[in-house]
Amino acid sequence: MIRLIGYGNPGRGDDGLGPALAGRMADATGLAVTTEYQLTVDHALLIADAAKVIFADALLRADAPFEFTQITPSTSHDVTSHSLSPEAVLALCKTLYGRTPKAFVLGITGHAFGEVKEGLGPQARTNLSLAEAFLRDWLAGKQPTPPVGGLAHA
Amino acid sequence: MTDTPRTIEISPVTRVEGHGKVTIHLDKHGMVDDARLHIVEFRGFERFIHGRLLWEVPVIVQRLCGICPVSHHLAAAKAMDVICGVDELPPTAEKMRRLMHYGQVMQSHVLHFFHLAAPDLLFGFDAPAAQRNIFEVLRQKPELGRRAILMRKFGQDIIEATAGKKIHGTAAIPGGINHNLPIATRDAFLKSVAEMRNWAQDALALARDYTLSHAELVGSFAAFPSNYMSLVREGDGALDLYHGNLRMIDAEGATIFDQLPYDQYHTKLVEDVRAWSYMKFPFIKDIGADDGWYRVGPLARMNTVNLIDTPLANAARDELLATAEGAKMHPILANHWARMIEVVHCVEKIEDLLHDPDLQGTDLRATGDRREEGIGVIEAPRGNLIHHYKVDENDQVTFCNLVVSTTHNNEAMNRSVKDVAVKQLSGQPEITEGMLNQVEVAIRAYDPCLSCATHALGQMPLEVELLDADGQTLDKKARAQ
How high is the pLDDT of residue B452? Predict the structure, then answer.
């Protein structure tokens, strides 16, 4: 099973890119889709039985419309609040359940995060469509076009 | 020793939600003169609500916070009940909302205790940062970690079943609820609730044992008296996290006001503004800002209520208060014990509700005569939460005032930081990691959500700065984010 976790706050403009992607991918075959505000300790359990997991999040200050990067467990990311980084969720999964799925971060570039505002900006919507197309190709086993800035293969 | 007064800045304060900064002001003798918790972000959520339709407010306000969205959902829904002329919900609606709320409080307290507080409690405040974190807790006690995650999942699943989804739930609507609890869903929860009760009692024992075995530390760490406020149940003054009237007591337990309908909150409370923080400072109007500040939250609730109407939690509260020998409990570190008592209480209430056939009722919504103003109050995980709205003839919001738990606790958090700073930093030539963490522990004991308190959104860090008597920065400390 492949799990997609789209996270972010849709009430803060382009920070809603992760949940927006999750919404678009809800109908994808063989993909378990979850939408969250932020990653917390219980996501370690959610991903424990997945073969692969994709963390979809808004990306700050990037040149490419999106980036797709393979990640590994890490405890070096400080736990500064209730929320965790994807790497920390993987580390917790490994500690508690003895395994980790192959994991990727799909970061979609946003531009407007500051204010309380619903809805994505025009550039974020374009980036979202590009990321969605990429992810559908990747899930289908195609060789999707790598975005500028790097691409990690499954 | 320098003869120049100094100020210390800590930035960010870790394991709290939101963005703020602590400044510690030293006098010319190097002694702590003052300490302030500054909230430095403001994004105007109340303005964002202006013009929104009353029907969408209970959903939109959940975007205030990724930690306790259900509390905002329910407080806003209660305010909109009033505006829609509904003073009493159908039993199914009220019990579905209560079930949602108990699931929320349970999972929030579990997250705080195991994820944020456990590293300090298990390894000590002075332990190296590399050890004092959730990863080390779980490496040493993986079974504890797995239980904590399953307890949090149980609470989250309750929320999903009652609110419609885990985030941005839509179930609580003005005047009621939009669905009941299917029998199959109820039965699934019933299969695991006894295990949750047992685990909650184990967690309670951990928190109690910590408090009792560290009595000297707990009794001296920012352990000062204060006034306390919470909702209490009408009539018997029992703990009621969902509904009731306001009670304020002083440090000895004497009544300041009692059974005050919460739509009168503004007759008793005033919100002060200080130039150095976006977070307001509420106080009791009749007493004044100097002595009229108060605390809310789990420990405050243990102090204010007459009893808890579930047997395990009530017995645990009796044991907690017995340690105060007839007085009220003041140490902020006793909040952890109080939090776990509330986890037990929530599981007991959830179990009772799951056996109540009203959850399968079909009368979901009441109606009434429209009003222009509504106030909804709830006891959120971190304490009392007030939502106050006015709407116009087009159902659009024209006024919004939110008083969140962290704002109620603002003065107390500042005093806690000062208490620790005076003991740890006065006369010291340098700031150590252990000193910084003690300041943070004092703030974390309130489980503050600074995002909520300033009505800003998203995760932001907090900082500590050291200043001299002339306001010049002498030192800053910031942890990696």
Answer: 47
